[in-house]
Amino acid sequence: MTAKKFCNYVWLNGEIIPWEESLIPVSAHSLHYAGSVFEGQRAYNGRIFKLAEHTQRLINSAQLIGLSVPYSAAQIEQANIDILDKNQLKNAYIRPVIWRGGESLKIYDEALQSNLAIFVSESNPAFKNPMSLFLSPWRKPSADIMPVQSKSAAHYAMLSMSQKMAKDQGFDDALLLDTEGNIAEISSANIFFVAYEAGHVLEIVTPIADRFLNGVTRQTIIELAKIAGYKLVEKRLKLEELPNYQTCFVTGTSVELCAVSLIDIGKNQLKFEQLEIVEELQNLYAELVGKVVDEEINE
Ligand code: PMP
User: Fold this and answer.
1) Shortest-distance atom of ligand 1 to CA 151
2) Cα distance between the two ends of the chain
3) pLDDT tens per residue across span 264-276
4) pTM above 0.90?
5) Which of 81, 94, 108, 140 is 20 to 30 A from 134 via CA?
6) CA 160, CA 155: separation in Å to the nearest integer?
């Protein structure tokens, strides 16, 4: 069994332990039945961006799939701060995860207990380069199939299959449609498109987040774009409408704000230009989160 060592210490059920001791039993219920929920957060210069929002989403994600949460929001927030501090990292990706333990192998059993672990991973302060997308043949499950706002492992089986297909064919990530054929999101980020008129931004469009995760970054970028004076529209969007948009970008805690250069839709490839709007929103985001993007750190 191999595992990458992400950090020196892990917060596990109220204790801080060395990474090497953070072992879970092979009978862990969530390993078999996907009943776990998690968060992805980032610290910039020692401050965890929107920690309260992420913690609340973690708790909601658990409640939506009937998983008990053994700690209060305040305790979870403090645990995040403590483990970041213990690992002596200032710019980091932080991963809290709640899962059912190995008390039973039944699909559900009252004996099952919830566990909470938090670990961290050093993050690169540079923004990522434009990415290319492959159209996944898989669709996002609709709200009557799974609780779509639960950041639950159950969703990620299909997302990781889609991402594997994209990578196998030389693309960076996969674009997912919903069951009605509308654009939804990519494997772990939300998507935006920009239309122009006479060289000026006419509108920024993003799909309505009622059938996929309404990302914290998505909500932040919507706010920032509106404050900057742009017309921001949330609507259903079909593949056939994409040629009306010249710029495309994705948003997420890990990817932050990253331009998309092309989407391969099978019969043809849609090309997008990384116009100034991407850099403008990246700068606004960097300022808000407290990100330092200078030459020295990028090297
Ligand atoms: N959709 C999915 C499926 C994701 O995994 C993520 C990453 N958490 C997002 C969207 C973006 O969410 P956020 O901006 O809160 O990171």
Assistant:
1) 5
2) 33
3) 998 899 999 988 9
4) yes
5) 94
6) 9
Residue having the nearest C-alpha atom to atom 3 of ligand 1: 188
Residue 32: CB atoms within 10 Å: 13
Q: Atom 13, ligand 1: which residue's CA is nearest? A: 215
Task: Establish whether residue 257 lines the binding site of ligand 1, counting it when its CB lies within 6 angstroms of any ligand atom.
Answer: no
Whether residue 190 has its Cβ less than 6 Å from ligand 1: yes
Query: Is there an atom of ligand 1 within 6 Å of 216 CB?
Result: yes
Q: Name which residue sits closest to atom 2 of ligand 1, judged by CA.
A: 188
Q: Which pair of structure tokens corresponds to residue 191?
A: 């998507």
What is the percent of the chain with per-residue pLDDT over 70, rounded to a whole number?
Answer: 98
User: How far is C-alpha 253 from the geometric centre of its chain's CA atoms?
Assistant: 5
101 lines ligand 1 (CB under 6 A): no
Check if 206 has its Cβ closer than 6 Å to any atom of ligand 1. Answer: no
- pLDDT tens-digit readout, 175-198: 999 999 999 999 999 999 999 999
Q: Alpha helix (H) ranges present in the chain?
A: 29-33, 51-64, 73-86, 153-168, 216-227, 276-289, 295-298
Q: Coil, helix or strand for 161?
A: helix
Atom 6, ligand 1: which residue's CA is nearest?
A: 188
Tokens of 193: 């498109």
